[in-house]
Amino acid sequence: MTCKILCLNLLEGGQFWDNIKTFIEREQPDIVCFQEYGNGGEDQPLQYQSPRRFDPLLAGFEKYYSPELVQVWPTGPVEAGNCIYSRFPITFRHTVMLHGAFETVTRPADEKDFSHYPKNLQHVVVDVQGTPLHVCNLHGVWGLDGGDNPARLRMSELVKAEIADHQPLVLMGDFNLKPNTQTIANLETKLVNVFKDELTTTFNMRHKTNPGYATAVVDMFFATPDVKIINKACPDDDVSDHKPLVVTIEVP
After folding, report:
1. Domain count, the chain
2. What is the rounded CA–CA span in Å between residue 187 and residue 222?
Protein backbone atom coordinates (compact mmCIF):
# COMPACT_ATOMS: atom_id res chain seq x y z
CA MET A 1 0.00 0.00 0.00
CA THR A 2 1.45 3.36 -1.01
CA CYS A 3 0.87 6.59 0.88
CA LYS A 4 1.69 10.14 -0.26
CA ILE A 5 2.73 12.49 2.54
CA LEU A 6 3.01 16.27 2.29
CA CYS A 7 4.88 18.47 4.77
CA LEU A 8 4.63 22.26 4.78
CA ASN A 9 5.33 25.21 7.03
CA LEU A 10 2.30 27.34 6.14
CA LEU A 11 3.78 30.75 6.98
CA GLU A 12 1.55 32.32 9.62
CA GLY A 13 -1.50 30.20 8.95
CA GLY A 14 -1.27 30.18 5.16
CA GLN A 15 -0.54 33.55 3.57
CA PHE A 16 -0.61 32.22 0.00
CA TRP A 17 -3.91 30.41 0.20
CA ASP A 18 -4.78 30.25 -3.50
CA ASN A 19 -1.40 28.70 -4.32
CA ILE A 20 -1.64 26.27 -1.40
CA LYS A 21 -5.09 25.14 -2.48
CA THR A 22 -3.97 24.57 -6.07
CA PHE A 23 -0.89 22.70 -4.87
CA ILE A 24 -2.81 20.34 -2.57
CA GLU A 25 -5.48 19.68 -5.18
CA ARG A 26 -2.73 18.78 -7.64
CA GLU A 27 -0.77 16.53 -5.29
CA GLN A 28 -3.75 14.69 -3.75
CA PRO A 29 -1.87 13.66 -0.57
CA ASP A 30 -3.03 10.99 1.86
CA ILE A 31 -1.41 12.63 4.90
CA VAL A 32 -0.59 16.31 5.40
CA CYS A 33 1.64 17.69 8.16
CA PHE A 34 1.48 21.45 8.71
CA GLN A 35 3.51 23.79 10.88
CA GLU A 36 2.37 27.36 11.71
CA TYR A 37 -1.27 26.29 11.50
CA GLY A 38 -3.43 29.16 12.74
CA ASN A 39 -6.53 28.65 14.85
CA GLY A 40 -7.79 32.21 15.09
CA GLY A 41 -11.34 33.33 15.59
CA GLU A 42 -13.76 34.56 12.95
CA ASP A 43 -12.77 38.15 13.75
CA GLN A 44 -9.23 37.46 12.49
CA PRO A 45 -7.93 37.68 8.91
CA LEU A 46 -8.62 34.51 6.92
CA GLN A 47 -4.96 33.50 6.82
CA TYR A 48 -5.16 32.92 10.59
CA GLN A 49 -8.29 30.77 10.26
CA SER A 50 -6.63 27.61 8.99
CA PRO A 51 -9.48 25.22 9.96
CA ARG A 52 -12.01 27.31 8.04
CA ARG A 53 -9.92 26.84 4.90
CA PHE A 54 -8.32 23.41 5.23
CA ASP A 55 -11.20 21.42 6.73
CA PRO A 56 -13.32 21.81 3.56
CA LEU A 57 -10.30 21.36 1.28
CA LEU A 58 -9.39 18.11 3.04
CA ALA A 59 -12.97 16.97 3.56
CA GLY A 60 -13.19 13.40 4.82
CA PHE A 61 -9.75 13.55 6.46
CA GLU A 62 -9.30 13.10 10.19
CA LYS A 63 -7.39 15.87 11.94
CA TYR A 64 -5.15 16.25 14.97
CA TYR A 65 -4.19 19.77 16.01
CA SER A 66 -1.62 20.57 18.72
CA PRO A 67 -1.43 24.24 19.78
CA GLU A 68 1.94 25.64 20.79
CA LEU A 69 1.07 29.19 21.79
CA VAL A 70 -1.22 32.17 21.37
CA GLN A 71 0.38 34.93 19.32
CA VAL A 72 -1.07 38.38 19.90
CA TRP A 73 -0.89 40.15 16.53
CA PRO A 74 -1.95 43.75 15.88
CA THR A 75 -5.27 42.24 14.75
CA GLY A 76 -5.69 40.30 17.99
CA PRO A 77 -4.83 36.91 19.53
CA VAL A 78 -4.35 33.83 17.32
CA GLU A 79 -3.67 30.35 18.63
CA ALA A 80 -1.15 28.47 16.49
CA GLY A 81 0.63 25.14 16.34
CA ASN A 82 1.06 21.97 14.31
CA CYS A 83 -1.64 19.98 12.57
CA ILE A 84 -1.88 16.57 10.90
CA TYR A 85 -4.61 15.64 8.42
CA SER A 86 -5.01 11.99 7.44
CA ARG A 87 -7.14 10.23 4.87
CA PHE A 88 -6.71 7.13 7.02
CA PRO A 89 -8.25 6.69 10.49
CA ILE A 90 -6.17 8.12 13.34
CA THR A 91 -6.03 5.56 16.15
CA PHE A 92 -3.54 7.27 18.50
CA ARG A 93 -2.77 10.92 19.28
CA HIS A 94 -0.03 12.36 21.46
CA THR A 95 1.80 15.68 21.81
CA VAL A 96 5.20 16.32 23.41
CA MET A 97 6.40 19.81 24.24
CA LEU A 98 9.93 20.14 22.88
CA HIS A 99 10.68 23.66 24.06
CA GLY A 100 8.94 25.82 26.63
CA ALA A 101 5.27 25.54 27.56
CA PHE A 102 2.05 26.79 25.98
CA GLU A 103 1.82 30.54 26.58
CA THR A 104 0.62 33.82 25.16
CA VAL A 105 3.26 35.83 23.28
CA THR A 106 2.78 39.40 22.10
CA ARG A 107 4.21 39.56 18.61
CA PRO A 108 5.33 42.90 17.22
CA ALA A 109 5.18 43.33 13.46
CA ASP A 110 8.99 43.48 13.28
CA GLU A 111 9.68 40.40 15.47
CA LYS A 112 13.15 39.01 14.75
CA ASP A 113 13.83 36.62 17.64
CA PHE A 114 11.61 33.53 17.94
CA SER A 115 13.95 31.47 20.12
CA HIS A 116 11.64 31.73 23.14
CA TYR A 117 8.56 30.51 21.25
CA PRO A 118 7.17 27.17 22.49
CA LYS A 119 7.54 24.17 20.15
CA ASN A 120 5.99 20.72 20.08
CA LEU A 121 6.04 17.31 18.43
CA GLN A 122 2.88 15.53 17.28
CA HIS A 123 2.75 11.73 17.20
CA VAL A 124 -0.18 9.93 15.65
CA VAL A 125 -0.80 6.39 14.47
CA VAL A 126 -2.86 5.99 11.31
CA ASP A 127 -4.46 2.75 10.17
CA VAL A 128 -3.30 2.19 6.58
CA GLN A 129 -5.58 -0.67 5.60
CA GLY A 130 -4.71 -2.66 8.70
CA THR A 131 -1.10 -1.53 9.11
CA PRO A 132 -0.37 1.00 11.88
CA LEU A 133 1.86 3.80 10.56
CA HIS A 134 3.43 6.17 13.07
CA VAL A 135 3.51 9.77 11.82
CA CYS A 136 5.42 12.47 13.70
CA ASN A 137 5.29 16.18 12.89
CA LEU A 138 7.35 18.87 14.59
CA HIS A 139 8.34 22.52 14.54
CA GLY A 140 11.87 22.82 15.89
CA VAL A 141 13.57 25.25 18.24
CA TRP A 142 14.29 28.48 16.37
CA GLY A 143 17.70 30.11 16.02
CA LEU A 144 19.17 32.13 13.16
CA ASP A 145 22.57 30.42 13.39
CA GLY A 146 21.18 26.96 12.59
CA GLY A 147 23.70 25.22 14.85
CA ASP A 148 23.56 23.03 17.92
CA ASN A 149 22.68 24.44 21.31
CA PRO A 150 21.41 22.87 24.56
CA ALA A 151 17.74 23.43 23.66
CA ARG A 152 18.11 21.76 20.26
CA LEU A 153 20.13 18.85 21.61
CA ARG A 154 17.47 18.33 24.27
CA MET A 155 14.85 18.44 21.50
CA SER A 156 16.58 15.57 19.68
CA GLU A 157 16.62 13.46 22.85
CA LEU A 158 12.90 14.10 23.43
CA VAL A 159 12.14 13.10 19.85
CA LYS A 160 14.23 9.93 20.15
CA ALA A 161 12.40 8.99 23.35
CA GLU A 162 9.03 9.51 21.68
CA ILE A 163 9.76 7.52 18.53
CA ALA A 164 11.44 4.75 20.62
CA ASP A 165 11.40 1.55 18.53
CA HIS A 166 8.14 2.20 16.71
CA GLN A 167 7.96 0.87 13.15
CA PRO A 168 6.97 1.78 10.51
CA LEU A 169 7.44 5.47 11.32
CA VAL A 170 7.98 8.76 9.52
CA LEU A 171 9.12 12.02 11.10
CA MET A 172 9.00 15.39 9.37
CA GLY A 173 8.74 19.11 9.88
CA ASP A 174 10.51 22.44 9.98
CA PHE A 175 13.46 21.61 12.24
CA ASN A 176 14.73 25.20 12.23
CA LEU A 177 18.37 24.08 12.07
CA LYS A 178 20.97 22.75 9.66
CA PRO A 179 21.26 19.05 8.81
CA ASN A 180 25.01 18.80 9.57
CA THR A 181 24.51 19.15 13.32
CA GLN A 182 24.78 16.78 16.25
CA THR A 183 21.07 17.36 16.83
CA ILE A 184 20.24 15.76 13.48
CA ALA A 185 22.98 13.12 13.85
CA ASN A 186 21.23 11.99 17.03
CA LEU A 187 18.07 11.30 15.03
CA GLU A 188 20.02 9.55 12.28
CA THR A 189 21.05 6.87 14.77
CA LYS A 190 17.48 5.61 14.52
CA LEU A 191 16.11 7.01 11.28
CA VAL A 192 16.98 7.42 7.61
CA ASN A 193 17.31 11.06 6.49
CA VAL A 194 15.36 10.80 3.24
CA PHE A 195 16.69 13.95 1.52
CA LYS A 196 20.17 13.79 3.07
CA ASP A 197 22.69 15.94 1.16
CA GLU A 198 20.33 16.30 -1.81
CA LEU A 199 18.83 19.76 -1.24
CA THR A 200 20.46 23.17 -1.41
CA THR A 201 17.72 25.02 0.46
CA THR A 202 14.19 24.42 1.66
CA PHE A 203 13.37 28.12 1.71
CA ASN A 204 11.37 29.88 -0.99
CA MET A 205 13.71 32.72 -1.86
CA ARG A 206 10.87 34.72 -3.44
CA HIS A 207 10.07 35.76 0.14
CA LYS A 208 13.51 35.96 1.76
CA THR A 209 15.95 38.86 1.68
CA ASN A 210 18.76 37.33 3.75
CA PRO A 211 21.00 35.48 1.23
CA GLY A 212 21.93 32.94 3.88
CA TYR A 213 18.54 31.28 3.45
CA ALA A 214 19.52 30.26 -0.11
CA THR A 215 21.79 27.56 1.30
CA ALA A 216 19.77 26.57 4.36
CA VAL A 217 18.01 23.20 4.59
CA VAL A 218 15.71 23.17 7.62
CA ASP A 219 12.69 21.16 6.43
CA MET A 220 13.44 17.45 6.69
CA PHE A 221 11.82 14.03 6.35
CA PHE A 222 12.96 10.89 8.17
CA ALA A 223 11.76 7.29 8.10
CA THR A 224 12.52 4.02 9.82
CA PRO A 225 14.60 1.63 7.67
CA ASP A 226 11.62 -0.63 6.96
CA VAL A 227 9.80 2.16 5.08
CA LYS A 228 10.39 2.03 1.32
CA ILE A 229 10.60 5.43 -0.38
CA ILE A 230 8.78 5.32 -3.72
CA ASN A 231 9.17 8.97 -4.68
CA LYS A 232 10.40 12.18 -3.07
CA ALA A 233 10.37 15.82 -4.12
CA CYS A 234 10.87 19.35 -2.83
CA PRO A 235 8.73 21.29 -5.33
CA ASP A 236 9.38 24.96 -6.07
CA ASP A 237 5.72 25.94 -5.68
CA ASP A 238 5.08 29.42 -4.28
CA VAL A 239 3.06 28.24 -1.28
CA SER A 240 5.02 29.68 1.67
CA ASP A 241 8.39 31.12 2.60
CA HIS A 242 9.35 27.44 2.88
CA LYS A 243 9.28 24.84 0.14
CA PRO A 244 7.05 21.80 0.66
CA LEU A 245 8.27 18.22 0.93
CA VAL A 246 6.29 15.49 -0.82
CA VAL A 247 7.19 11.85 -0.17
CA THR A 248 5.42 8.71 -1.34
CA ILE A 249 6.15 5.65 0.76
CA GLU A 250 5.23 2.01 0.65
CA VAL A 251 3.81 0.92 4.00
CA PRO A 252 5.27 -2.49 4.88
Report:
1. 1
2. 9
pTM: 0.97
| Domain residue limits at 208 | 2-250
Query: What are 19-39's pLDDT values in tens digits?
Result: 999 999 999 999 999 999 999
CATH number for 106: 3.60.10.10
Residue 109 has pLDDT above 80, yes or no: no
Determine the pLDDT at residue 247.
98
Q: Residue by residue, what is the 3-state secondary structure of the chain?
A: CEEEEEEEECCCCCCCHHHHHHHHHHHCCCEEEEEEEEECCCCCCHHHEHHHHHHHHCCCCEEEEEEEEEEEECCEEEEEEEEEEECCCEEEEEEEEEECCCEEEECCCCCCCCCCCCEEEEEEEEEECCEEEEEEEEECCCCCCCCCCHHHHHHHHHHHHHHCCCCCEEEEEECCCCCCCHHHHHHHCCCEECCCCCCCCCECHHHCCCHHHHHCCCEEEEECCCCEEEEEECCCCCCCCECCEEEEEECC
